[in-house]
Design a protein that fits this description.
This protein has about 350 residues and is mainly alpha-helical. The chain has helices at about 1-5, 15-30, 30-40, 50-80, 85-90, 100-110, 115-125, 130-145, 145-155, 160-180, 190-195, 210-245, 245-255, 260-270, 275-290, 295-305, 310-315, 320-345. The radius of gyration is 21 Å and the shape is globular.
Length: about 350
């Protein structure tokens, strides 16, 4: 970490941080007029299908990437306070119920995704964290991540962002608690059950502001460097939906009137290989075209929390019956969320 810190000016890191924030805000404010100017300079009609799709893409692509960069940098600094060892130590000594809530809450602010499922699972088991608590964390970590939350805030406002946060935490807490009640520890793979228990340490590194800024920079290089193709792909799909898909068609497929729209959205979402950042522009376009909020939320949550790659990875440590229970409980929670919000809103 100290080596990384040398890349940043060490004398006035807070001043540098303030200047960067001002530059970020100034750039953000220019995005809408710049996108309209670019479309106006092209040989297309602004009100045509192509013009609408191009404006959506030219505005959302830099907007989402700018939001993503800012959030990842800030959370990279915040995540220096939440090492895997410290997270395991905090969860290992809590009772069920309280531990499920804490695990899901920690999943929101910790930098772990479904790609980290196997090493995290092993570390939690070795630290003595109960199985249901582990699942609450592993469900919340990819599904309610801080990047998706901030993007939703920037694109849809605080009501939708808080709705996503509350729903995701509820599904993670309840699903983990239910799985814990089934007492399915014997459905872990044999080699996982036989691992020796290791006490988790509650340590916290003492880092300078410059070192935490360096960690934020590393997070940007790592995360944004990996996900930007998915972001652009998601925005391109969203632009196509925004420009070319008729509102009546989308309302018929994913509207409130079709009872089968919620389970269909979940079935479509599970095999998709993307993350919250890539799926949010698609969500934005679906809502603009008249899709029901509950159906769209169910689609988004299934993409993030029940992705096929994560299930394949977890198969290394879980027996099929436990994987089926995990998928079934989480899917039931997501379906409930979709139906409830389609009924209420």
């Amino acid at each position: 970490m100290s080596v990384l810190a040398e890349r940043w000016p060490s004398r006035h890191p807070r001043a540098l941080l303030g200047l960067a924030a001002l530059a970020w805000v100034g750039l953000y404010e220019t995005l809408l007029p710049a996108s309209e100017a670019l479309v106006a300079a092209l040989p297309v009609e602004r009100e045509s299908h192509l013009g609408g799709a191009l404006q959506f893409f030219l505005y959302d692509a830099p907007k989402v990437l700018l939001l993503l960069t800012g959030v990842v940098f800030v959370m990279g600094m915040v995540n220096t306070y939440f090492t895997p060892e410290r997270t395991r130590a905090m969860l290992a000594v809590r009772r069920d119920g309280v531990a499920n809530v804490m695990a899901a809450s920690l999943g929101v602010v910790t930098p772990f995704c479904s790609c980290s499922a196997v090493p995290l699972f092993i570390g939690f088991v070795q630290a003595g964290v109960p199985l249901g608590v582990t699942f609450s964390f592993l469900i919340a970590a990819p599904m309610v991540n801080e990047v998706a939350l901030t993007l939703l805030l920037g694109l849809f406002g605080w009501r939708i962002a808080l709705l996503y946060l509350g729903l995701g935490l509820s599904v993670a807490v309840v699903a983990g608690w239910v799985i814990g009640r089934f007492r399915m520890e014997h459905h872990l793979e044999q080699w996982v059950q036989q691992m020796p228990k290791v006490a988790a340490t509650h340590t916290l590194a003492r880092l300078t502001v410059g070192e935490r800024m360096a960690a934020g920079g590393e997070s940007v290089r790592d995360i944004v460097g990996r996900v930007w193709p998915w972001v652009l792909a998601g925005i391109a799909i969203g632009a196509a939906i925004h420009g070319y898909v008729p509102e009546d068609l989308m309302a018929a497929i994913m509207g409130k009137g079709a009872w089968w729209s919620v389970p269909l959205a979940v079935l479509i979402g599970v095999p998709m290989y993307t993350n919250a950042v890539g799926v949010i522009p698609i969500v934005q376009a679906l809502l603009a075209k008249g899709a029901a909020l509950g159906t769209v939320l169910a689609f988004m949550m299934s993409v993030i929390a029940l992705s096929l790659p994560e299930i394949v990875i977890l198969r290394k440590v879980l027996k099929p019956r436990l994987i089926a229970t995990f998928v079934g409980v989480v899917a039931a929670g997501i379906l409930t969320v979709g139906y409830v919000f389609n009924f209420v809103l």
